[in-house]
Please model this.
Amino acid sequence: MIYTLIGKKVGMTQVYDGENRLLPVTVVEAGPCYVAQVKTSNTDGYNAIQIGCGLKKTKRITKSEAGHFKKAGVEAKATLREVRCQESTEYKVGDVLTVSGFEEGQKVDIVGVTKGKGFQGVMKRYNFGGGPDSHGSMTHRRGGSYGQCQWPGRVYKGRKMPGHMGHVRRTVQNLKVVRIMEDKNVILLKGSLPGPNGSQILIRTAKKTKTAA
Model:
């Protein structure tokens, strides 16, 4: 099964590795996560586990959620995520997942939501070059021609135009685990992650890592 944790992006810093090289890293506070439910192909049609992270006040959850957590024997969680797994899973309801499940030097994938930029034009959204800045030009930041005149008489679907930018789900693959601090539930990942500081991310074992021959 792909080991997965729910984490929170704290911020970026820099640390030295074993060869005295300065590395840019992102600090992530991950876990502990609790297994709230185990789904199987016999009962649910597919195999998965449901993990929860963070605490939530009892008065802020519904009766159905309260019964769900009570059955699992865990406190009310602020976040629940479902992770697909293989036919045979060794996890049981109530198990705890921590950063100790990862190793320093291994590769992980990060799933998060990018920063929202609001409504933006084509120069910021798609890196268009824009129009001339002088010689009487009055179209400096516009997108130019979007279609034809008489035929087909419409704008093709998918044309790059101004619109909402950011706040989309993105996955960054094969980031290196630089350091793990089990006592603080902190993991340091090389490079940057999608989303603002304080946003929630999903850390999982890399799916497409290349291995040396």
Observations:
- The longest strand covers residues 4-16.
- The longest helix spans residues 63-72.
- The two ends are 23 Å apart (CA to CA).
- The chain has a mean pLDDT of 91.
